[in-house]
Design brief:
Blueprint (H helix, E strand, L loop, with lengths): L7 H22 L1 E9 L10 E6 L12 E3 L1 E2 L4 E2 L2 E5 L2 E4 L8 E7 L2 E7 L9 E3 L3 E7 L6 E7 L4 E3 L5 E8 L1 E8 L8 E7 L4 E7 L24
Parallel strand pairs: 1-17, 3-7, 6-12
Antiparallel strand pairs: 1-14, 2-13, 2-15, 4-5, 7-10, 8-9, 8-11, 11-12, 15-16
Length: about 230
Amino acid sequence: MQAQTVHPSRNKFCLLLSALGLLSYSLTAHAGLLVGHLTDKNAQSVANAVLFATPLDTPMPAKKAGDTSIVAQENYAFSPYLTVVRNGSLIRFPNKDTHEHHLKSFSPAKTFELRVNSKKEEPAPILFDKAGEVALVCHFHDWMRGFIYVVDTPYFAKTDASGSAVINNLPAGKYEVKAWAPNMLGEPMTQTVQVASDGPSNIKFQFNFVPKAPPAPRNLSKGAAPFGYD
């Protein structure tokens, strides 16, 4: 039987794929997982809360230029109700409703005012470059409330309906982990945790209050008052 000849360039290609595979496996094997569970003062799960981790003994990853998120006005509510971004990120505010909105924030982390017309050109995105809470309101629709929380780390997650949040791809090491929820007074709660590379690291926080539920979306039919309380 005639021996099969393998082209040298194919050998190099296979070696490259093998090296990339080993690198991927190495990165995955050394990436930690932080699983958090957040509850209120009555030990009930808290959705729409923030869990974020700051490395204490490993380098902070560089920021990604051009990171952009979206906070839409849809069914006369902010969608999503809570948005979490790293500082230096841009946020767009498209209007999907039939009436215009007049967005405002008086928060120290970001003060701005934005008139968002319906069926017209979307306003330019806004840069969020300072960590902290940003509370959103609409001057035209009193019930509309929303939050943006800006963190100075790429390691963050938002809790789901079960109060759970998962932060993955954490390099093994020690982290300062914080928890925050809308309408919280004072600084976020803080714990220090050692994240391992061989399995999930678990953490729990219990707030000393009951966060308010997000305002329900509204379907304003023709004839309903577009401004103020209907």
